[in-house]
Amino acid sequence: MNNKTAIILGGGISGLLVSKVLSKKYEKVIIIEKDKLEDKPQVRQGQSHAGQFHVLLLRGLNTLEHYFKGITGELKEGGAVELDLGNGAYWYSYGGVKQNKITGINTLLSSRKIIDYTLRKRVEKIPNVQILDKTKYIDLIEENGTIKGVKVKGENTEEYEIKSDLVIDATGRGSLTPKWLENHNYPKVEEERTLVNITYKTAIYSRLEGGLQDGKMLMYSPTSPEKIGVVIQPIENNQNLVCVAGWHKADPPTDEDLLEFLKQLPDERFYKVLSACKKESDFVTYKVPYCLRRYFEKLSDFPKGFLPIGDVFCNLNPAHGQGITSACLQVEILEELIKKHDPANMSEIYFKRIVKVLDECWNASAYENFRYEETIGIKPKAVNLVNKYMVAIHKAANKDASVYAELVKVSVMIKPAMNLFSPPFMWKVFAANMRK
Ligand SMILES: Cc1cc2nc3c(=O)[nH]c(=O)nc-3n(C[C@H](O)[C@H](O)[C@H](O)COP(=O)(O)OP(=O)(O)OC[C@H]3O[C@@H](n4cnc5c(N)ncnc54)[C@H](O)[C@@H]3O)c2cc1C
């Protein structure tokens, strides 16, 4: 432990996780969060996306548990529903339902606000971490190429300065850093955008006695050119989070129109389940026009004493549920590097290592994005061939539970995507598709 101070900008998932890692090295860690943080689960302005469907992939959950031992149990106490993804998901895609099988690949389902609140409560117990809420970060203080602190403004205060030895930017998609760099004569951060134009609409429904759901999560994935998908996700308090997503500007139906839409699906279960539920909230809309990647690693110059993390690097397609897990993996890299390097002087090696995580998540998401010919952006390698094979995997998983189990392991990121391309697995896919 040194006698230094680290400042973390943003009290989202990334900021909270990083605070745990830095608290072992820095005498004082200060999280600056612009929103008011209440003593209850909340969806707040700076994280309005937290009101939408979120699934915490097993890889991310394992990291949370690694840093905050027992948090899985606390999430369950908070109402999170444990579910074996191999057996607990009723997933319709490519003309059929995935063959279920108990896999032991358990994950937790809950509203996103429960995850954030449970994590924040754990961070609040770390003695050398202070969370300054209702405090907006305004500017960085730079001296001779090193960040020496930040300028902030509290709800009822004038602007003031906080000095520090390290600043981490965890302010998410809207980060001021790219503009700040440009305004201070650093090179421009190269960006890549992939236009997907997804609209999410989400509401809470109660599960009623006698419904058909059996505790399962139901997912209907649209097959291009279809553009509307639905998730009915069991969450805390015997409720469902119902999310309807429209790709490429398709307007997701809600209320009676949603029931009409479900009635026309090739599988009647979606209609039967939702019509046995009671709507408890209005639908809330969130739009994701594009996925965004920022290539900090290509910069020839970057200030010392400063590092970005989480969604500042990359906004993945939410439809693939990787964002939190990507943040978790980035924090693991940061932890590993600060054991050997001075955190205030390691941006080059940090960016180099982070790229591997970002590439893994971004590429997996990119193939999916280009299932639609309307998607605009840089296509990944051999996209048509890979996507044809992915369709074959999905169809095989509708017939063979072991194919589905492998697909689940890759989807929750506990196995590498390359596993889907091993010759024995490819043979299994081929054989399943040959069966009637
Ligand atoms: C619709 C939608 C659905 C998603 N679904 C999933 C999913 O199923 N699974 C999954 O893993 N991921 C999902 N994601 C992605 C996931 O939500 C993000 O990757 C994750 O929230 C990133 O966390 P973060 O802490 O990096 O950024 P954020 O969550 O954006 O947090 C940034 C924080 O910084 C604060 N802040 C911003 N500016 C300032 C400032 N100037 N001063 C002080 N504080 C500031 C904000 O208030 C906020 O608290 C989804 C995203 C969206 C949009």
TrEMBL record:
PANTHER family reported in the protein's UniProt record: THIAMINE THIAZOLE SYNTHASE (PTHR43422:SF3)
Cross-referenced Pfam families: FAD_binding_3
Signal peptide: none
Limits of the FAD-binding domain: 6-260
Name recorded for this polypeptide: FAD-binding domain-containing protein
TM spans (from-to): none
Gene Ontology terms, MF aspect: FAD binding
